[in-house]
């Protein structure tokens, strides 16, 4: 992912908000998210912008939408918005713990705070909302159990793990997987990809180029935290021309975007099945909606989990006709 060096994408609701002149008497919603120019986060930003703009036009409030690619810049963005006396702040942290001080400043000021996707451990905002990462991991564990039922009955099944990063999201997905997956699954090696397709490709290539034939041929499955990670792994496997036979039978992802749907049609790999879980960029719209409810003084639950759905070769065509898929690609 291309890094952006400054806080960018400062979007202001058009009607009634002035910087140089007087202040608007309309309530203000602040939104702070990670920055990106492609991939899941970039899609999420577009959906977040669209939803806050829509609600602001419908209900007559102003907003400030800021993105940053580092935690320090995000903290500055939160403080900037906090100085504008917002009615609510919606925060999607780059890294949860590094936003602890900024988040505490928001609650200390009595401003409702909605935290999306990456949480701050031990911190209680007005509400938290995310995809159900634990359920994703648990479901993947059960799917792996069923898929490898014959092999598991005979003994151990070796797999590689490719994690997103060190935030709460990967932790929940891995812990969910371990809670349901058979104890006969043996994790040979775990990699941290930072959600990067390029990184996962390089890690897989390095594994294939440095391990013995026996080690490579022992791997039957790959457990990952994201579709983008899978794309890098697939490229590495397609480009491998070494002496080992690839015995990988199943690779999972998370997101269920159109790129993953293409793997069901033609991955370029023989004998490899794929499975993913829905985790749409449009989910950020739900966080914006909670922000508006908080502006209205509604009492919110402390935690919201957005349901997920398993997608594999048996149902991907039906999924591509669903409302969830259509909304994701509506922008």
From TrEMBL:
The keyword Signal applies. Residues 30-298 form the Periplasmic binding protein domain. GO terms for cellular component: cell envelope. It is found in: Cell envelope. Keywords: Signal. Residues 1-20 form the signal peptide. GO terms for molecular function: carbohydrate binding. Transmembrane segments: none annotated. Belongs to the bacterial solute-binding protein 2 family. PANTHER family: D-ALLOSE-BINDING PERIPLASMIC PROTEIN-RELATED. This is Substrate-binding domain-containing protein. It comes from Breznakiella homolactica.
């Amino acid at each position: 992912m291309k890094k952006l060096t400054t806080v960018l994408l400062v979007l202001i609701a058009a009607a009634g908000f002035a910087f140089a002149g007087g202040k608007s008497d309309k309530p203000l919603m602040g939104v702070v998210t990670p920055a990106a120019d492609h991939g899941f986060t970039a899609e999420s930003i577009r959906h977040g912008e669209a939803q806050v703009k829509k609600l602001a036009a419908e209900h007559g409030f102003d907003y400030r939408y800021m993105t940053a690619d580092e935690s320090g810049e995000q903290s500055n963005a939160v403080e900037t918005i906090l100085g504008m006396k917002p009615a609510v702040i919606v925060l999607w942290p780059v890294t949860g713990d590094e936003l602890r001080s900024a988040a505490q400043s928001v609650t200390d000021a009595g401003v409702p705070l909605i935290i999306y996707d990456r949480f701050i451990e031990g911190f209680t905002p007005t509400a938290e909302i995310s995809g159900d990462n634990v359920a994703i991991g648990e479901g993947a564990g059960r799917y792996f159990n069923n898929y490898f039922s014959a092999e598991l009955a005979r003994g151990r099944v070796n797999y590689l793990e490719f994690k997103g990063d060190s935030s709460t999201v990967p932790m929940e997905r891995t812990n969910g997987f371990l809670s349901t997956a058979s104890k006969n699954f043996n994790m040979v090696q775990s990699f941290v990809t930072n959600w990067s397709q390029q990184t996962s490709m390089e890690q897989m290539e390095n594994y294939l180029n440095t391990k013995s034939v026996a080690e490579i041929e022992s791997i039957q499955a790959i457990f990952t935290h994201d579709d983008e990670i899978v794309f890098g792994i697939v490229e590495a496997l397609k480009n491998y021309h070494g002496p080992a036979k690839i015995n990988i039978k199943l690779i999972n992802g998370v997101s269920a975007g159109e790129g993953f749907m293409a793997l069901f049609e033609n991955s370029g790999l023989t004998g490899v099945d794929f499975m993913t879980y829905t985790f749409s960029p449009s989910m950020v719209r739900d966080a914006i909606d909670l922000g508006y409810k908080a502006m209205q003084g509604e009492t919110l639950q402390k935690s919201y989990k957005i349901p997920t759905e398993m997608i594999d070769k048996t149902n991907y065509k039906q999924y591509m006709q669903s409302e969830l898929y259509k909304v994701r690609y509506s922008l």
